Amino acid sequence: MARWEAEIEAAEWPGRGTLLIEDHDARVAGFAHFVPSRDGDDGPDSTGEIASFYIDPASWGQGLGSRLMHSALAELGSAYRTGTLWVLETNIRAQAFYEATGWARDGQGKDDLMAGVTIRALRYRHELRALFRDRRAPLPLLSADTYATHLRDLTSDTALDVRRSTDPTRRHR
């Protein structure tokens, strides 16, 4: 994880559209980065894409990934109707995680060449506002900062921090 922290510092990252989650020791345990859709068959005004979603393997199984995904979906849902992400066809663990958090394969795939090897990625889709369509009044979406505060209040044994960066020059520590 120290490598991630060093790369984040060197790149002056995170920037706009980035969420960070910290473990109980206030170290970066993972991040999500989203952008308008880069796919030609989706409108960038209505579809947002999670371009990166990573949790440090040392933090797996602690609920941090689910909490980060919940915040990412809330942020995407505040700006887009639909979300997409790409996952390697061979990454069964990630596919199971995405499916457990409401994502579904949409039938699209793409091949990329990395180090002379062809790898296949599958696209997943999430209808972000579908949760609110059948309700009289939609539930309010919390900002990542507000969500983190509520989670911190609910989890006295774990200090969780999900932070949204809206200013690329602002540092969260």
Task: Quickly list its features.
single chain, 173 residues, seven-stranded mixed sheet
What share of residues is helical? 10-25%
The amount of beta strand, in percent, is 25-35%
What class do helices, strands and sheet pairing give? alpha+beta
Structural shape: globular
Strand elements, count: 7
Order of helices and strands: HEEEHEHEEHE
Largest sheet: 7 strands, mixed
Q: Strand order across the biggest sheet?
A: 5-6-4-3-2-1-7
- CA radius of gyration is 16 Å
Mean pLDDT: 75
- Total count of helical runs of at least 4 residues: 4
Note poorly predicted spans.
132-143, 149-161, 165-173
CA-CA gap between termini: 15 Å
Write the layout of secondary structure elements.
Blueprint: H1 2-10, E1 18-22, E2 28-36, E3 47-55, H2 64-77, E4 82-88, H3 92-100, E5 104-114, E6 117-127, H4 144-154, E7 161-165
Parallel strand pairs: 3-4
Antiparallel strand pairs: 1-2, 1-7, 2-3, 4-6, 5-6
Could you walk me through the main structural features you see in this protein, from its secondary elements to its overall organization?
By secondary structure, the protein is of the alpha+beta class. About 25% of the residues lie in helices and about 35% in strands. The protein has a seven-stranded mixed beta sheet with strand order 5-6-4-3-2-1-7. The two termini are about 15 Å apart.
